[in-house]
Amino acid sequence: MIEIHNIHKSFNGKKVLDGVSGVFETGKTNLLLGASGTGKSVLLKCIVGLVKPDLGSVTFDGTYFTNNKLDIRQEIRRKIGMLFQGSALFDSMTVEENIEFPLKMLADMPRDERKDRVNFCLKRVGLENANKKMPSELSGGMKKRVGIARAIAPNCTYLFCDEPNSGLDPLTAIKIDELIAEITEEYGITTIIVTHDMNSVIEIGDKIMFLYQGKKLWEGTNDEIMDTDVPKLNEFIFANRLMRDAKKVDDDEENERLLQG
Ligand SMILES: Nc1ncnc2c1ncn2[C@@H]1O[C@H](COP(=O)(O)OP(=O)(O)OP(=O)(O)O)[C@@H](O)[C@H]1O
Question: Which parts of the sequence belong to the ABC transporter domain (predicted)?
């Protein structure tokens, strides 16, 4: 479980995060949702320690992270897997070398064990036998899968994904979302995903935190989000015509049920 308390961050006098608190649960996909520029990525960076909050704290499974001693922060960092926007694979390395990279950097693992772990992770993301391919030979969805394999290779306890399905067609996007959700549940990982995609919310939103202008305006589950009465969240959800139509069908069915007693 990851807990954040009263996170504030400004850049050049401009407030980007304004006292955000919350809990991200273990074995769940926790979504950071909001429009462009609301501070989702900055919050993610504050949590993993890439940006230092001006105020506030982050705790990983009860261990205080922000401003703690370097060795304790490094110990927590070793347990973090990151899936970056655009996958961020090393273009000059094969798929296998990309996945092996964090194992060489972070874990003191013999070569044979490393190879086994690479093969296990490749199989888990559905890319067995892609070991020798170069990133340039892969589709966008395959690159994301390699990115996921690389993130989970060191047996991460925490997984952070920055817009994991951006740039993918809707079907591939759902497959990537599902893969992340399955891995999260299977290995009991605490996963935080930055997104503005309502499909992801509906498909895999175990827990959702909605940010608006640097503040947390709402939190809840994908079952609860369609019935929210927070105006800014409603505006965000129903900006999309498909979502408006889905809501209308739900409401019509509910009215029908009520009329029939
Ligand atoms: N290093 C930085 N220096 C100055 N301003 C920054 C920095 N990082 C982020 N910002 C600003 O903070 C605000 C929030 O940015 P952030 O990237 O967190 O938004 P976001 O909600 O993730 O948006 P998007 O969905 O478009 O990625 C933006 O106005 C951005 O310009």
Answer: 2-238
Angle at 134 between CA 130 and CA 139, to 5 degrees: 75
Distance, CA of 4 to CA of 42 (rounded, Å): 13
* 7's tokens: 């996170």
Going by the DSSP 8-state scheme, the letter that residue 208 receives in this structure is E
- Look up the ipTM and state it: 0.96
Q: 192: domain range?
A: 1-79+158-230
Last residue of some domain: 129, 156, 183? 156
Distance from residue 41's CA to the centre of ligand 1 (Å): 7
Mean pLDDT by 10 residues, the chain (261 residues): 97 96 96 93 94 95 91 91 84 94 81 91 89 93 91 92 88 90 94 92 92 95 89 85 70 77 72
Going from the Cα of 38 to the center of ligand 1, the distance in angstroms, rounded, reads: 7
In this prediction the pTM is 0.89
Is the Cβ–Cβ distance between 236 and 210 less than 8 Å?
Answer: yes
The span from the CA of 200 to the CA of 193, in Å, is 10
Same domain membership, residue 195 and residue 181: yes
With respect to residue 235, please indicate whether it lies within any of the assigned structural domains: no
Mutation probe of ligand 1 site: the residue of 9, 10, 11 with most atoms within 8 A of C-beta: 11
Say if 244 falls within a structural domain: no
